[in-house]
Amino acid sequence: MKRRSLFNTGLGVVLFVVFVWSLVDLGIGPRLFWRGLPHFFRLVSEMFPPSWEVLTEPDILWSVVETLSMAFLGTFFGAAAAFVLALWAASNLTPSRLVRETVKALMAAERSMPTLVVVLVLIVVIGLGPFTGMVTVAIGSIGMLGRLFAEAMENVDPRPLDSLKSTGASKLQIIRYAVLPQVVPSLIANTLYRFDINLRTVLFLGVVGGGGIGFHLHLAMSLFRYADALAITAVILSVIWMAEQLSNHLRSVVIGRETLR
């Protein structure tokens, strides 16, 4: 008991030292915050009234469609690849431990890869544009969805699988008639949740050359057109809100509930 108490005390001291060192190293303090407030209020004053005229430009409206397309296609292709990998990673579907652990290691490596690194590499390989953004979103979806899909497959009721195996059914038949009926709601719900995340990711990718409405927001801020930036921001928030409401409704229908919190 005493040893545990000393350990907890030592851990608390280490965390406190790390906390204080982080504050000092980053230069965080109330003085810096208060000194920046006048700049914030000046920026806000220059944003109003928003320049709604910028929304009449064809490029702006098309970039909204482009953003939604990147998020949708990136999620679709990422989910498709994640589903295939999940079949190899699920312990009840892949007997070979070597194959399972290899696939899980690949998915873990993808999850640890920062999105910024992926998009910068793809810009060199593919170039700037929405295609790069879509591929980045697809790659970023594989690790997370692959793990969630594999866990869903491992938690299915084993009795239908055993029944089909006893009749000599093939692996594809087992997946089609025993696994998919149990995991489809979970797969769809998790994919829709990932779409919400990817939609926000696409906005960030526009800043680094991935295309979409995020590029126009970055351009407006760079040119000090703050009133245009506020109007574009309003469009972005509206699109995200509508997409999230639709996604929540679809998830509630899929999992058989009226509301999701």
Q: What is the strand and helix layout of this fold?
A:
Elements: H1 2-26, H2 30-47, H3 58-89, H4 97-111, H5 115-125, H6 130-154, H7 158-166, H8 171-207, H9 213-222, H10 226-254
Helix pairs in contact: 2-10, 3-4, 3-6, 3-8, 4-6, 5-6, 6-8, 7-8, 8-9, 8-10, 9-10
How does this structure look, described?
The structure is a single chain. By secondary structure, this protein is an all-alpha fold. The chain contains ten helices and no strands. The two termini are 41 Å apart.
Structure at a glance:
The chain is mostly helical and 261 residues long. 81% of the residues lie in helices and 0% in strands. The model has no long low-confidence stretch (mean pLDDT 84).
Q: Regions with pLDDT < 50 over 5+ consecutive residues?
A: none
Helical proportion, percent range: over 70%
| CATH homologous superfamily placement | MetI-like
Briefly note the CATH topology name. Answer: MetI-like fold
Distance from N terminus to C terminus (CA atoms, Å) equals 41 Å
Overall 3D form = globular
> How much is the average pLDDT?
84
How many β-strand stretches? 0
Determine Rg (CA atoms, Å): 24 Å
How does the major sheet shape up? none
Question: How large a portion of the residues is in β-strands, by DSSP E?
Answer: under 5%
CATH architecture verdict: Orthogonal Bundle
The CATH class is identified as Mainly Alpha
Number of helices: 10
The structure class reads: mainly alpha
Number of domains: 1
Give the H and E element order: HHHHHHHHHH
